Amino acid sequence: MTAPKDHNSRSRNGNADDRLRLLVERIERMEEEKKGLGDDIKDVYNEAKAVGYDAKMLRQIVRLRKMQPADRREMEATLEVYKAALGID
Question: Is the pLDDT at 83 greater than 70, yes or no?
């Protein structure tokens, strides 16, 4: 994207450059925060594992709790149909 060539082009381009830089810096800060949160979550799973909980099951529970109840029931019903079709349980 190029700015028009007039007497205001430098200030408009400078403002756009500043805005872009600020947006990129915000994204970078958020990516760092996200990495930190990911590390914190991993630590909690490790803590749970250390006291005897199954981290894989905890992840599944967290995933299920994010779902709407109707969506969860539909998923569980479909899973039961598939398991029955395959002779599991």
Answer: yes
Of 7 and 85, which is predicted with more confidence?
A: 85
Q: Which residues contact 3 (CB under 8 A, 6 or more apart)?
A: 9, 12, 13, 16
Q: How far is CA 19 from CA 4, 25, 30, 39, 40, in A?
A: 18, 10, 17, 30, 31
**What is the CB neighbour count within 10 angstroms for residue 58?**
14
Domain co-membership, 46 together with 29: yes
Provide the terminal-to-terminal Cα distance of the chain, rounded to the nearest Å: 61
| Structural domain containing residue 15 | 1-53
- 21 and 40, same domain (yes or no): yes
| Global model pTM greater than 0.85 | no
Instruction: Please give the C-alpha separations between residue 74 and each of 62, 70, 81, in angstroms, as whole numbers.
Output: 17, 6, 11
